[in-house]
Amino acid sequence: MATILRHILRTKPPNIMFRRWEGTEKKVVVYDPFVNKPQKNKESYLEVIKMFEGRDTRRRGHVEFIYAALGRMKEFGVQKDLEVYKALVEVLPKGKFIAQNIFQAEFMHYPKQQQCAVDLLEQMEDNGVMPDSELEQILLNTFGRRGIPLRKYWRMLYWMPKFKNLSPWYLPDELPADVMELAKLAIQRITSVDPDTGVEVWQTEEIEASLDKTWIVSAQSDAQKILLAEQAEDEPLVVRGPYKVCIRDQFVTYFLLLGKIRPEVKDESDPDDVSNLKKPSGIPGFIGHTTLPSTRSIVHEQDDGTILSVCATGTSSRDSLLSWIRLLERNGNPLLSNIPVIFTLTAPPNDITIQETQPATGNEEKVASTS
């Protein structure tokens, strides 16, 4: 009998036995319940979570489900909703992950589930979602007082209120959807160093020769107008940009109008000499025109040039910037009709990378603004 079995094992089996499996391939299909939802909103998102909780009492695959749900938050627009984060933490089973002794607590009892909860809290922190006491109780019932997620929650509750209102530039909880309103917030933030700065919104349609029909958000103060009036007509002005300013998770492109720096005046007179006192400007009874002090201003006069105005346009094109110069001329800057303006916009702003422009050279495009 043993000889017969040995002969069967040594004999090559016929190919008929393998023809059944020829051309077949095993594949693992991952089911994503968020894909089949036609409406991407908060109600449908919470509905998927409830379906997962009611499908299996043991809630197998809860970690994979939470990671998949975290990746779909932006698609459903719930990345800043505290109720949704608490619903995801509720998916984790209660009581099983609580450490029973000091060794389990120190060696991170159920590390996969604790790391998943920490990643969820980090996504809350990245989106600026402030936790509440109810979330603390949910984490306490899930991982216990010695759990790593509860320690992460306590650190968030300490630091996030400190940084929430730390910025001096107030922004609403919901940023405006209109790009022009967002540009106004950005320009106001940039020019807040001078409280006298006024922000105005113009339309390029006011210039008959303009090609781009768009809006312009321009900012200029009275001190900048005086600085522009004192610029030499033989020295060209430079429009530099595009630069980017971050408004929370949005970026706004802006441009600067730069002029020449005034030579610094050296005053060698004795400040203690009171033999020849002059009547200062700005008091009642003074007759004459107001001029800037001889010392440089630390706000508008920087090392690389004098900032004469700031703007953001709807298209960020050369034509819109040329319309901006002409509109500045009409609004209190008549000297721009005689001063040449150099545009250093070397690449369109829609490119992925924009190299920083170098100082103006003779090969750059020179455009003289005309009224």
Automatic annotation (TrEMBL):
The keyword Chloroplast does not apply. It comes from the Eukaryota. Gene3D superfamilies: Tetratricopeptide repeat domain (1.25.40.10). Residues 221-346 form the ECSIT C-terminal domain. It is found in: Cytoplasm; Mitochondrion; Nucleus. The keyword Cytoplasm applies. Keywords: Cytoplasm, Immunity, Innate immunity, Mitochondrion, Nucleus, Transit peptide. One of its GO terms (cellular component) is mitochondrion. One of its GO terms (biological process) is innate immune response. Its main location: cytoplasm. Belongs to the ECSIT family. This is Evolutionarily conserved signaling intermediate in Toll pathway, mitochondrial. It comes from Leguminivora glycinivorella.
